[in-house]
Amino acid sequence: MFNKILSTCILLGVCCAPLAAAAQQDDHAQQQQQQYVQHKEWKSGYHMNHDDWNRGQPVDYRANHLQQPRSGYEWRQIDGNYVMANTGTGVISTVVVVRH
Fold it and tell me: Tell me, what DSSP letter sits at residue 62?
């Protein structure tokens, strides 16, 4: 009986280890996303680099007390900044530093 319990515990540990590692990677990526990096060039009218925009996470403007984006614009959280930009052109409308 003890051997069955031990075998089951070992099997669960082996099967769940990749899931735990993936969760840790997600937590690390989220922490990096929220860590503030100053981008002096990010201001209204600046054409944002597609790589920067694409690594940002979409943001619920209501939950974060941000203004509603105009049609064709979206908020993203990038490097500890909320950035609203045109989704087609990447031209920035507004940048707000994330405050937690």
Answer: T
* H or E element that contains 2: helix 2-34
* Location of structure tokens 């735990």: 20
Both tokens assigned to 59: 């943001």
What distance in Å separates the CA atoms of residue 38 and residue 46, rounded to the nearest whole number?
15
Amino acid at site 10:
I
pLDDT tens, 45-100? 999 999 999 999 999 999 999 999 999 999 999 999 999 999 999 999 999 998 76
Residues 54, 56, 62, 65, CA torsion sign: negative
